[in-house]
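This protein record is not my work; I was only asked to verify it. Where you disagree with what is written, explain briefly why. This is what I was given:
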Amino acid sequence: MTRPDLNLLVTLDVLLAEGSVAGAARRLRLSPSAMSRALARLRATTGDPLLVRAGRGLVPTPRALALRGRVGQLVEEAEAALRPAGTVDVRQLVRTFTLRTREGFVETFGPALLARVAREAPGVRLRFVPRPDKDSTPLREGIVDLDTGVVGGTTGPEMRTVALFRDRFLGVVRKGHPLARGKVTPARFAAGRHIVVSRRGLDRGPIDEALEPLGLKREVAAVVDGFATALALARGSDLIATVPGRHTGSLRAGLQSFPLPVPLPEFTVSLLWHPRLDADPGHRWLRGLVRDVCAALR
């Protein structure tokens, strides 16, 4: 079956409103002959004359009268659907957003973010899920709305990103630990027993590479897959954890933190989303909220 030309709906709507080929032509900025051809196509498509001559004017047929309200509504809905997205009244917004984050983000930034959401959009719910890797599939498939983390080689090239904050790794020990007193030198740092955080179970990383030129090697006592676990072990032992500072601000409460004695580059934590949500007013509001909260908690 041949699909009808939906552009004819606009033409029919104007013709029925004007009741005149010449009037409809002026309104649509067409020539009278072009409008007459469009009316002929409408008659062929609907199988009805639609407008018939009565004296010097045209009058609608019963089918045209039946279509008038329906066609007008369809054109109005189509125009609304194609209209550029505007602002949204977030106080009336009822929606659940899913955010995928690394450990520590929710603990550090979640309370302030939820307080802002409750104040500005009480109908909005946030669902936080863990980010076990940098795979962009959950964003691409719409499983999550927003992602936070370091942009990497496995990040989908089509993803939109914006920087949230710069972060760096810190050493963390329990209160009263020997490294909590005095200057932490590379030798003192390497002499301790360490916890390595690795989602792939690796027991070696950038810190080991930085110690190597100094002729130093650290002893790895445990390998864990998350920052919270590493900090829990450090809290109850003499082990040394290495975690990102801003990301784990709340998780490190009650522990002693110190700058690493070997140079490691800072890194950028970004907000990521799929381009199909770029113009969505509600999503745009939430992105701005996350950025504001991260900027405020320095």
